[in-house]
Design brief:
Two copies of one chain form a homodimer. The first copy, chain A, is 33% helix and 21% strand. Chain A has 16 helices and 18 strands. Chain A has a seven-stranded antiparallel beta sheet with strand order 15-12-14-13-17-18-16, with helices on both faces. Chain A has a five-stranded antiparallel beta sheet with strand order 5-6-10-8-9. In chain A, helix 14 packs antiparallel against helix 15 (387-407). Chain A is globular, with a radius of gyration of 23 Å. At the A-B interface, strand 9, helix 8, helix 9 and helix 16 of A face strand 11, helix 8, helix 9 and helix 16 of B.
């Protein structure tokens, strides 16, 4: 098979070693095979088209690979596929300081892109934990979210244009750098969040923003979750420019302090929920004022405004360190869900009841981008119960949680995607009619079903699907 | 045919009178037929589903009708179709002050929606001239833009969820009110801007924003277009919160003053271009300061900051009145195009050359949402030349303009859509592969080709397409 590609790819672009292949074909999930026939690394879109065309003509299955930081097993392989990694397609093509856009190849690492744009006095606001190794093509393929969604939106909201390589090697140039274009269906939107099942993303044009002028970080202590959405509402009613509004439960807050003894809580007293709020506001007095008002009306119990950059960094660390800190407390089963912001209170109430009644032997860690209705729900085997019992309890809890989410018209995957991990849960979120339409759309773009087959849904309808 | 519907629709819901039908089947374009077999007015989604299902079973063609304010002949009829108007489906269902969302039926008039949301202390930022009669379903179907796109985006960016009625009467409930959801392809995105060719939009959930806190209006006088994008850049570099950045050429500015003698230019001297800039900025000194800096570096010739609401309204009127003022100067042929912001200067240069060389007997009015790369190009028959000669010259100029736009990777329709008006020009913007994919997508959602057939593109490939 190597012979098909060795005429135009050099030795560094064809990986055959099983250890290397396994590194490329794994993401951050476990329990999935990470195999492939070969991993190929095109250096430019011409090579990518040629690879796709050869795979198409030989009916070889293809998996597009980004930075392998996914959390839904969307890029793992069973061994029948060819992995095609974008690592070498990592050029930043143009930073446009007039149009406030940046154009780059799909393999550019997010942090490098942020950095390059920042050096030109602009902001590329997409930001999440994996930024040091995730690739922008992967961010687009999973429609990544992160910490700045409340103000700047998901990756979808930042994409202006895409260059796509279809399964047969044909190129689609979709939208380029236009902010406004109403010329028929926006095909581009289908590829955002499609997890590589419709084609390769080879090039991306993205929106940039002015840099944040007066970043302020406030940390709130709250006695009851019901006040959390209210704080957001109060800030919005005063037209504050809110960049992030993040929440962590006491379990999460305590876990962070436990895991990082050098950190201290900003508060003397203990609260049930903590809010990290990032604002763009010049007038710190206005922030102090609203904090006093919220305390007087008993909506918050306490508030601290970061007084300098060092303190701001420490406050942010309290939120950023949550996931790692919870993993230290035992095996974790994680869900990444969303419900409408106004339903968060009732949903969390039901969730807490479910855990009190049926899963009280496990630790429940709840945190997330609350301003977007997005909660990370961690079930932690903190008493180190047998792995098998824990696993089965988690699977059972999944279905109970998903049924709750369905009831609140929420999403079973707010940020991470479906991949293989949530394939069987898709029906809690999407109707049969929708899934059938999606299968048909896949067949339009990829008639031989070669692009990342079996991810999200199965195209051949089988009894197990 | 009336009998098919009279069992469940009353007399006010079935229009047979040819004058009434003609009112419903016309938009703001001329030269197109405005006929239909019947116009039906469902009162709720159940009736709409029943209508669609009957039409489907009887293979009747359907045209969804909004406020009939379209500019691309996307809702006109040849007489073979049934028009289905959303006027009676005009309920605002829920305004959510916690989640900052609003849910309403498709027939709600935009201005009523703005008003209702504003009474609850929030902002629904979509705003354009037709707001008093356009319906939100139509705004979504054309992905309307308007004056606040620079800050808040197009309609697409404001839509959270859609309820769709497909040609066969099946309902799709897409996304509800979720800000975050990564569960496979975003089918919803296909319906935004689809001009009614894929199904009916029956219900919409939209994003709201905090109200603007410190609205400031500045009017700039500029000697040369090359400085216009630079002003935008200078403002962004200083992290100003820009809501709108609109440009008008001297021709447009003068036409407004001529048509409204009660208005006066804010400037003593004459400029070649004028900029209306709307900012959210508390500190007016900061604005004065940047105006001085821009004048010192010769980027602008003059600047005036509105000192009160009355002055702000007058400044905005200078921009809003442009279109009507140009229509008073003679027959108008209008194009609504976009190019990347950084290409505006070169594009406009080429456009001016084209007109100087080949169309100098007509008046050229250029204005628009320059911050989004969106220009309205009006060719005006100001010397009242014979209609036929003018029409032919405009058709010729269209193709020359579209070729220029293609060269700058721009759009032949930034805001207004394709409909029938720009159907033959679609190939300047979309490749044959794209158009073929779009045809196939239409066939997936509407296999009998009953939904607004013949608009945007023809599904049966014919030599005339």
């Amino acid at each position: 098979m190597k012979n098909l590609f060795s005429g135009f790819l050099d030795a560094t672009q064809i990986l055959e070693d099983s250890t290397l292949i396994s590194q490329y074909m794994a993401d951050r999930t476990k329990h999935y095979k990470s195999l492939a026939k070969l991993v190929l690394l095109p250096q430019n879109v011409d090579e990518l088209c040629r690879i796709a065309s050869i795979c198409y003509n030989n009916s070889l299955l293809m998996i597009p690979l980004g930075g392998r930081t996914g959390l839904s097993a969307a890029t793992v392989g069973t061994g029948d596929e060819v992995g095609i990694a974008m690592d070498k397609m990592n050029k930043i093509i143009e930073i446009d300081e007039i149009g406030y856009t940046v154009e780059c190849e799909a393999g550019v690492i997010l942090e490098n892109l942020q950095q390059a744009v920042s050096e030109r006095g602009m902001l590329f606001p997409l930001d999440y934990a994996a930024k040091g190794s995730c690739q922008i093509g992967g961010s687009v393929s999973t429609n990544a979210g992160g910490i700045n969604v409340l103000k700047y939106g998901m990756t979808r909201d930042l994409v202006l244009g895409l260059e796509i390589v279809l399964a047969d090697g044909k190129i689609l140039n979709l939208n380029h750098a236009l902010i406004k274009d109403n010329s028929a269906y926006k095909l581009m939107q289908l590829f955002i969040g499609a997890e590589g099942t419709l084609g390769f993303i080879s090039k991306v044009t993205l929106k940039c923003y002015p840099q944040v002028k007066n970043r302020q970080i406030v940390y709130f202590g709250v006695k009851n979750f019901e006040f959390v959405p209210q704080i957001l509402q109060e800030l919005r009613q005063r037209s504050f420019d809110i960049i992030a509004f993040e929440c962590l439960s006491k379990v999460c807050h305590d876990a962070v302090l436990e895991s990082m003894p050098q950190l201290r809580s900003p508060f003397q007293s203990i609260h049930h929920y903590y809010i990290l709020c990032e604002l763009d506001e010049k007038n710190s007095d206005a922030i102090s004022e609203v904090c006093s008002e919220l305390m007087e009306s008993d909506i918050i119990q306490d508030a601290v405004i970061a007084q300098n950059d060092k303190e701001a960094t420490l406050f942010k660390l309290l939120r950023e360190a949550v996931s790692d800190a919870l993993y230290l407390k035992g095996e974790v089963h994680a869900n990444d869900i969303s419900v409408p912001v106004s339903s968060l209170k009732l949903f969390l109430n039901d969730l807490n009841n479910l855990f009190r009644n049926s899963y009280s032997k496990y630790l429940l860690g709840v945190f997330g981008h609350i301003g977007d209705g997005n909660l990370h729900i961690y079930i932690i085997n903190s008493n180190n119960e047998s792995g098998e019992i824990f696993k089965n309890a988690c699977l059972k809890s999944d279905h109970e949680i998903f049924a709750l989410i369905e009831q609140y018209r929420g999403s079973i995957s707010a940020e991470h995607g479906i991949g293989l991990l949530k394939k069987s849960a898709l029906r809690y979120r999407r109707s049969e009619t929708e899934i059938e339409l999606m299968r048909n759309i896949k067949q339009l773009f990829d008639p031989k079903n070669l692009m990342n087959p079996g991810k999200i849904f199965t195209v051949e309808i089988s009894p197990n699907d």
